[in-house]
Specification:
The chain is about 15% helix and about 35% strand. By secondary structure, it is an alpha+beta fold. The strands form twelve sheets. Strands 2-8-9-10-11-22-18-17-15-16 form a ten-stranded antiparallel beta sheet. Helix 1 runs parallel beside helix 11 and helix 6 packs parallel to helix 9. Keywords: Carbohydrate metabolism, Signal.
Length: about 775
């Protein structure tokens, strides 16, 4: 017998009683359809299942298996015996659901029981798969920690035809460094799995998309691509799993790659309570800061014949002289004590770095601090094993704190020298380098949870760096984790700025993606990299559009003040989009299916919604030689059935053009990293003839929530309350009746001004 469950209206055909499992022939029973044909799961009572999208089978199940007693028990060879199938219903945080549970048993002395559960929801395009260790088990580990302790759900990879593609996140920096895009066929060998594997998206040429990822216990969950199958399960280093433990995976469907990731992320954020308010309170996200991390001029590099204390004070003098409104100072790994394996021995400043101590240096700079940390050394002075006061796991080279008090004390002490943001770097190295993390089911979660809870208690925000996808997904559980690196380390002239795809993942997790630092000028003599930065304009644009920190790292005397100030108000508040710049669907589809029309290069869109109007920022760069691409409103994924749209290039206020299904924006290979294409698109005022707000066209983001509070209109007036620093002055552009113009706005002493357009008089004012 078989059932088909629609993910939207699932379960109407489920039996309400236990179904005795019959012989193998039962899998040949007739199929029944639900009323929803877009996203359905076909469940057969022999324990197999398949996923259909719009009537086409995309995924067919692979045999379920579990490891116990150091043996693999599989449904394929009947060593994992299916004893019954049952149906149930209920509700949880996601809504009303119905489920099918397959009960399995292995023929060991304990008759150990396992379950494989499929849960669908009435109101969500979601399927939750759960593997349940009913009795628990020992000897569950695979051959290596890169394997699984059991495989469910599992899907056969690909088919003969090339009708589907995939995006597989993997590696570090929020799954950026090993991300892969290709065709979903039975010959693919490019899927990320194991410790570095991450979420997987499968899509067709129309952009219909499934997103597959863990749904709980993110630090313990893994994927395995082997023998033509792709499985989810518990990471293979775990040798004991307790009774009742469940590992869940989610399959989310939507029409559109970005829409699928947005919906998947919203589902996870809603379930775990991740809200955007914390980002808005994080000064290192909202305001401009000065950075000293890898790629910075002063990364392990001081002014000639000076120590770091003298160097950072010189930087502060230069900041004051230029008037660049930096609101915090980032201190990288050069300031604290290191021990075995170059890990952290003691997280306090060294006297050779800051002779007067961190507290006094912070007072002299008069700027709050963002500070770097890395993995803990085996000889860390905090561990009881080394004479300290805190519980640690200590191994040959690295160590791991397992004491909540440690994190409370560490952050409370750091508040004395002004810490507001804690950067936990080397997350992947800590995870793979501490054997206990690879073999313990819950230790990884404990580590990150203790860190996050203590940070929140001290009102400190966390940036994740070098995070594998498991750390990235764990961030959805913590309010304190507001940002994460979405790129490899910056070096002058490198292409690590290309974060359009990793930003899709970061935004879904409710985390602001960070591009890393950058130089604002091309040549900075005496730098330790012996390099130049010809792409300084692109670096500044990407940093601003990312919605993450904007952190230049120039030498004293090396800043392009005008370029830096394009990102922010005069008080240092960053004028950023509401939603980060992300690769459009067409870019990903083109990378997978070479024969479709799409950009063969980077094409991203960021956007902001104010007063019900959508304003977007389009960045296109590095199209393949000899290619061009024309973008239409539908390609942005934002504009469906709207009225007038106006597109203006960032460097030409008078070059605006209409943007619609007939007149798109054409980009060619001439838009390079040194000369990128950046367009701003404004939605027209409904009911008004060719009228819109263009905003501050000398900023990277002309219309942003940090400047424009609201937009309202009547038949004859448009009103936009503005905000900024008292006495701040700027040009504010608009189109009124097809004619572009500008007014000079001056922010009042109360931090506000009001922009108005009058249709009858044909004028605009700002006061």
């Amino acid at each position: 017998m078989s059932w088909i469950l629609g993910a939207f209206q699932a379960g109407v055909l489920l039996a309400a009683c236990l179904l005795a499992v019959l012989g193998p022939s039962q899998g040949h029973a007739r199929l029944q359809k639900t009323s929803d044909s877009d996203f359905v799961i076909n469940i057969v009572t022999d324990g197999t299942y398949s996923i259909k999208i719009k009537g086409n089978t995309w995924l067919s199940s692979a045999p379920t298996y579990f490891i116990a007693n150091n043996k693999t028990y599989s449904a394929a060879d009947k060593t994992l015996k299916l004893t019954q199938a049952s149906a149930s219903s209920g509700s949880d945080q996601l809504g009303k659901w119905q489920s099918t549970e397959f009960a399995y048993v292995i023929n060991d002395s304990n008759m150990t029981r396992f379950s494989a559960v499929i849960k669908t929801y009435f109101d969500l395009p979601v399927i939750i798969f759960s593997q349940v260790w009913r009795d628990g088990a020992t000897g569950t580990n695979g051959k290596t920690y890169e394997d699984l302790c059991g495989g469910y759900p599992g899907f056969q990879v690909g088919g003969q035809s090339e009708t589907l593609g995939f995006l597989s996140y993997g590696g570090m920096m929020f799954g950026d460094t090993k991300k892969k895009i290709d065709l979903w066929t039975n010959t693919t060998n490019r899927l990320n799995d194991g410790i570095e594997g991450g979420p997987l998206a499968i899509f067709d040429k129309d952009g219909n998309t499934l997103v597959f990822s863990p749904f709980n216990s993110f630090m313990a969950a893994s994927f395995l691509h082997a023998d033509g199958n792709y499985y989810g399960g518990v990471m293979g280093g775990v040798s004991e799993i307790p009774a009742g433990y469940n590992q869940d995976f989610i399959l989310y469907y939507a029409s559109g790659i970005n829409k699928a990731f947005e919906g998947w992320g919203a589902t996870l954020r809603g379930y775990y309570g991740k809200k955007p308010e914390m980002q808005r309170n994080d000064l290192t996200i909202t305001h401009l800061g000065y950075w000293t991390d890898n790629g910075a001029y002063y990364y392990y590099n001081t002014e000639p014949d000076k120590n770091y204390q003298q160097t950072v004070l010189d930087v502060k003098k230069y900041i004051n002289m230029t008037g660049i409104p930096y609101k915090y100072f980032q201190y990288d790994s050069w300031w604290y004590y290191k021990g075995i394996g170059d890990g952290v021995k003691t997280w306090v400043s060294r006297p050779d770095v800051f002779p007067d101590g961190f507290v006094n240096v912070s007072r002299m700079l008069n700027l709050p601090a963002a500070a770097h940390n890395r993995y803990w050394a085996a000889d860390t002075t905090y561990a009881k094993q080394n004479g300290g006061k805190y519980e640690f796991v200590v191994e040959a080279v690295k160590a791991l704190p397992v004491d909540q008090l440690f994190w409370y004390d560490l952050f409370r002490d750091a508040k004395k020298w002004g810490l507001i943001q804690y950067e936990q770097d080397w997350l992947n190295v800590e995870f793979s380098g501490v054997q206990a993390l690879l073999h313990n089911l819950t230790l990884g979660t404990t580590w990150l949870t203790q860190m996050a809870y203590a940070a929140e208690d001290s009102n400190i925000f966390i940036q994740y760096c070098m995070s594998n996808p498991r750390h990235a997904m764990q961030a959805v559980m913590y309010a304190a984790v507001t940002q994460a690196r979405a790129s490899d380390d910056y070096h002058p002239g490198s292409n690590q700025w290309a974060i359009g795809i990793s930003s899709i993942f970061a935004a879904a997790m409710g985390v602001a993606p960070y591009k890393d630092t950058f130089w604002s000028t091309e040549v900075q003599p005496g730098n330790p990299y012996k390099g130049t930065e010809p792409n300084y304009k692109l670096q500044a644009i990407v940093s601003t559009l990312s919605t993450g920190p904007v952190g230049p790292s120039d030498m004293v005397g090396g800043s392009n003040v005008d370029l830096i100030m394009k990102c922010c108000r005069s008080d240092g508040m960053i004028l950023k989009p509401q939603f980060p710049a992300r690769a459009i669907d067409g870019q990903i589809l083109k990378a997978a299916f070479k024969d479709i029309n799409g950009p063969d290069g980077e094409a991203w869109v960021a956007h902001t919604v104010i007063g019900g109007l959508t304003f977007s920022n389009i960045l296109v760069v590095n199209l393949a030689k000899g290619t061009s691409y024309t973008m239409y409103p539908k390609d942005t994924g934002l504009y469906q059935g709207v009225g007038d749209l106006f597109a203006v290039p960032y460097d030409s206020p008078f070059g605006w053009t209409g943007f619609d299904s007939m007149y798109g924006l054409t980009f060619t290979e001439e838009f390079t990293t040194e000369s990128p294409a950046l367009y701003h698109v404004s939605q027209g005022i409904p009911g008004w003839f060719q009228t819109t707000i263009l905003g501050e066209l000398d900023k990277w983001v002309p219309v942003s929530p940090q400047r424009v509070q609201d937009i309202t209109w009547t038949d004859d007036t448009v009103t936009a309350p503005l905000m900024g620093a008292p006495k701040e002055q700027f040009d504010f552009w608009f189109i009124l009746g097809s004619k572009e113009n500008k007014v000079i706005c001056v922010i009042g002493v109360d931090g506000t001004a009001t922009f108005k357009m009058d249709l009858n008089l044909g004028i605009a004012t700002c006061q």
